[in-house]
Amino acid sequence: MNHHRLEPRHLLRIAAALAIALLLFHGAAQAQEVESANTPACGSSIAACGCRITTGGTYTVTGDLSGAAGDCIAIKANSVVLNIDKHSITGPGSGTSTGAGIHVLKSSSGAFIEGGGGPSDITASGWKYGLEVQGKNTISDWVNPNGNVVGIFLDGATGANINDFAAEDNSVYGVWIRGGKGNQINCFNSNNNTGTGLYIGCHNDDTRGTRCRGVKPSSGNRIYDFESESNGDAGVVIDVGNQGNVLTDLTIKNNTGGVDSIDKNPSCGTDRWMNNGSDNFGVTSQSCIP
Fold first, then answer.
1. Is the pTM of this model over 0.70?
2. Burial class (CB in 10 A: 0-12, 13-18, 19+), 127
3. How far apart are CA 101 and CA 137, in angstroms?
4. CA distance linking residue 150 with residue 124, whole number of Å
């Protein structure tokens, strides 16, 4: 495997990507469960953006949805099954949106979200976050977030299982795990994002290796059966202080930031980058990545 010392042009490219992330997320990244008193409860059939699910049960999206700046569908209750049924959920544009296409709030546990499509079917686009998960034990299948600021955002989420999706053409991260613990992400690709394909952690300034104040480390996450190629920065980054994450069955290559796979913990700490014999970690930041 190739290990690479960053050249000045690569450092500048990475710093620029991180500066963009800071500009977009400083302050606003402290996502909170703030709801408008005027937001109506969703019915069992959802035909328009701007509702919240407040009772457990099964809900079905009945047509393509489009929305304004806030969340399109917010899930507040436990044991919710949401069937998107291959429909698109389109926001006002990633530079305008302040919300998510689908937002699983902190109060929710056991949500099941089925996109129903395949890798070429775009589910959520034009949002700040295509899918934002703050709750516990969320399962998502074939929810494809393309063309957002961040495709998948696990913000303090625990026990999530996010699988079978494509997160592409997002302007900062394809997938971002921030303060998330014990999550499983598998069977997906995160390609052609302007920034990083998969970022685990949170940083205070425009350099990696600094921890955000008040944000818990992201630990015990399992990432496998994953492809991250042709992103503008790195394919995968685990920032300092985020430990006990396991990554295997990966193809990480041809990212244009100069290094494909980065772990900022000395000797990778307790993170495990496992080579099952067919992995490709591309150009790596240190020798603990195979």
1. yes
2. buried
3. 19
4. 11
